[in-house]
Design brief:
It contains eight helices and 16 strands. By secondary structure, it is α+β, with helices and mostly antiparallel strands. Helix 3 packs across helix 6. The chain is globular, with a radius of gyration of 22 Å.
């Protein structure tokens, strides 16, 4: 488990061994605080010892425990021996388990490394499709072209005017305040692909707030502080004129599937018409439903549209290595 609820009474004592849902405990004047394992392990030792006996599963509210990171490299975690049989934390989906493992791996790198190199060429992990997804694989994206375009159509003309400005020479997007420096020495410098980085962000790792140096090229000329590189869609700023790794989840796409709309912000659109065919093939997307609720991370720039009513995030150079979409598994 990556999260646990700490339940205390006003006197600082645990309420019950196996509490009911928190809203039913309101008369007892309890305080329930949800901790991610990443935050909990950073608490002072005395605070960890005070709270660790008052931890509960966030899904079934049964007694939970905290295990510290081990000397042989195992990450810190929450767990429980008392889960209800139908608890999602007791029977997590394969996708949830993979994403949590990715988050733990990235978090461990944040603690152990001086820097991180993003490997944009790393191929996504392939997983066996479900029966529903196999049935949908026969659908052709071309059939969707019969639909009428949505009100996003007015933005399409803007994209052609913006693409050139996104395709800048790489020498022009040195992203640090410092001059380029020789790669850091000392601790090892691990590399990581977009898939695990996205999963770690979605699962609450400290990556988006870290001071870790992150290199966005193999030559290690361009480096960023992680907290300046990774930007949630809700925080996208079209005036900073710098590329970022934008991340979050998708709400939906337009009827022609040429624009992606992030759930994190209602005034952002991601144009994909130029790369749609290859993009959908790369991530096995055959239907609009595949994009609803999907996680996404892409390296690109944010612009205003012509009327400054909508933000547009354009994929850098329309390079499909610089985007990853994590669709929900049926």
């Amino acid at each position: 488990m990556l999260d646990a609820i700490c339940v205390l009474t006003t006197e600082g004592e645990a309420v019950v061994e196996h509490p009911q849902p928190l809203n039913s405990l309101a008369p007892l004047a309890i305080t329930g605080v949800t901790y991610s394992v990443f935050k909990f392990q950073q608490l002072p030792e005395a605070e960890i010892e005070r709270l660790r006996q008052h931890l509960y599963c966030p899904a079934c509210y049964r007694k939970a425990y905290f295990r510290k990171a081990s000397k042989d490299g195992k990450a810190a975690c929450f767990g429980s021996r008392y889960h209800q049989l139908d608890c999602i934390e007791f029977n997590p989906s394969a996708q949830k388990s993979r994403e949590e493992q990715d988050a733990l791996e990235v978090q461990q790198q944040l603690l152990e490394a001086d820097a991180l190199v993003i490997d944009f060429s790393l191929k996504p992990t392939k997983h066996e499709p479900s029966k529903k997804r196999q049935l949908k694989s026969d659908l052709k994206v071309a059939d969707i072209q019969a639909n009428k375009i949505s009100d996003n159509a007015s933005n399409i003309g803007v994209v052609s005017a913006l693409v050139d400005s996104v395709q800048e020479p790489k020498a022009n997007y040195q992203t640090t305040q410092d001059k380029p420096e020789i790669a850091l020495v000392g601790k090892r410098t691990p590399s990581q692909g977009l898939e695990k980085l996205l999963h770690s962000l979605l699962r609450g790792s400290d990556l988006a707030k870290s001071d870790l140096w992150v290199y966005t090229d193999d030559e290690r000329k361009y480096r960023w502080r992680a907290k300046n590189l990774f930007v949630n869609f809700a925080d996208a700023d079209p005036t900073d004129n710098k590329p970022h790794l934008y991340w979050g989840t998708l709400s939906h796409c337009d009827p022609l599937m040429t624009w992606l709309n992030p759930a994190d912000s209602k005034d952002i659109g991601i144009p994909i018409e130029v790369v749609k065919t290859k993009l959908f093939k790369q991530f096995n997307i055959t239907d609009k439903r595949d994009l609803e609720g999907a996680g996404i991370i892409l390296f690109g720039k944010c612009f205003w549209n012509k009327d400054k009513t909508r933000k547009i995030i354009q994929l850098w150079d329309n390079d499909l290595r610089r985007i990853f979409i994590s669709t929900l598994e049926d």
